[in-house]
Amino acid sequence: MNTASGTEPYFLGIDLGGSRIKTVAVNAVGQTLEQESIPFEDREMEWAGRIQEMVLDLRMRRGWPVAIGLSAPGLAARDARSIMHMPGRLRGLEGLDWQQYLGFPKPIFVLNDAHSALLGEAWIGAAQGLENVFMLTLGTGVGGAAIVDGHLLRGHLGRAGHLGHITLDSSAKNDDVGTPGSLEMAIGNKTLRERSQGRYTSTEALVRDARHGDLPAKALWQDSVRSLAIGINSLINVLDPEAVILGGGIAQAGPDLFEWLTETLQRHEWCPAGLGVRILPASLGDLAGAYGAARQAILSQSGNVGTVSC
Amino acid sequence: MNTASGTEPYFLGIDLGGSRIKTVAVNAVGQTLEQESIPFEDREMEWAGRIQEMVLDLRMRRGWPVAIGLSAPGLAARDARSIMHMPGRLRGLEGLDWQQYLGFPKPIFVLNDAHSALLGEAWIGAAQGLENVFMLTLGTGVGGAAIVDGHLLRGHLGRAGHLGHITLDSSAKNDDVGTPGSLEMAIGNKTLRERSQGRYTSTEALVRDARHGDLPAKALWQDSVRSLAIGINSLINVLDPEAVILGGGIAQAGPDLFEWLTETLQRHEWCPAGLGVRILPASLGDLAGAYGAARQAILSQSGNVGTVSC
Fold this sequence. Notes:
The structure is a homodimer. By secondary structure, chain A is α/β, with parallel strands linked by helices.
């Protein structure tokens, strides 16, 4: 494969987010050569054109990468060449064959964005070196992914790790995918207005008021964090991690989140032989997906295509 | 390794249950050569002596097996040579090194009983050939195990797959391991007396009355099965199986369980691209654990020691 003269071989990770596209170029030992982040509007496949331009620009300067990984919302197809299911947003993404679209000479490994973020954190972030770990991304909704026994869980339809869609209150109403009283509904920003009787639209404001001693705010925040603890407790019994990684905007609350969460979790967690689970903040921020995609690109060259090991 | 003359090489699966020990001897292609089931009392390690006698008897008649797998309650140690955590019952089991105890010339692969049962079902039972499947054993409590992307989930402490310990009602009281309002509490026999205000101690009797039109019995049974459906729905979003296997005494209820369960699940299940999950009865009954242990014995000879693939 031709690379531009004078440049070293590199691997490209692309992350198609909700409103930004991030790319990271890394060398074979994982050093970052460059990264980029650009905004886009979700109309007429603008995102696809932007990605094409970014890849072309890189190719002009560095030649083709050795391999490309691409992270995007939705469920990745079994052959990992496209996103097979992404209703509602990013029209045109479903079924788009990225190798063909970008004219790349090899298959491009396409991953679900939450899977990719955990792969990134497990590579060079908060989950580095952990063989049993799951991640929750606390934002508008609650996303998730899990690595068990060293394997990133993909599942039959690429849906494994939708950890926000577990029930905590079976008598409550259904969430977007039909799950009653889900973890996502208990702590995601999308229900905050309803949970606060219209008082809040941002968890940041809620946490600030709670910290300053506003009693209703404190009660609501503690209740939300208790729900998160109960959800994590369930997931610990299912997935048996060594650590749990929390990312997304709500995880920025820092001690206001982690202290109350840990205290609540300790009241419920089954600690066989006295061994508990660590709760850690994610460390790669919004670059986790791009790094995970780059990691998958590297793995795809070492006989790991299709297994998504870490 | 010496085998008695005139007998073919065989693999031995041993399942130490709550009140019975089951063994199965299979040949290299998985054909059953013989099986045995004997009762024991849980006192002074009677179970250990019984297993020793059973193995000695087999050895006299067939020589040593090529490999031995052993399934038991509790969490298997990371090196799979013993059960490392089993409080309350089977005193003496924790830390017992089975290779040493039985004087076998190779390591004996020790598995958690629920893990073993699913491995058995995935080998020659209801989950045969499935790469993404989980199993719930509905009895006194609710046990579980999961295979995702072809790997049996073991986890950091061997606890993965404790699927009965997920919360369905976060405001209810804690179960045995600290999980509030768990799936186990919603359908396991251990809470039936309480759930029925003292009227029932056996789910079989409850189901019979429900079938014959007793309205309170019907309401309670439907409520229990709805909880099971909600729990399965959560687990589908986490583990993304192709099918769910139900075993244990309560699964004997047949259509009284499966029809209402399927109907309720359909009201909640997220079916991406219209694809739903099949709910199937287990097919190996109480021999699943012994077959799973035998399967693990075979796998341990083909380079799969420690990975517990299926």
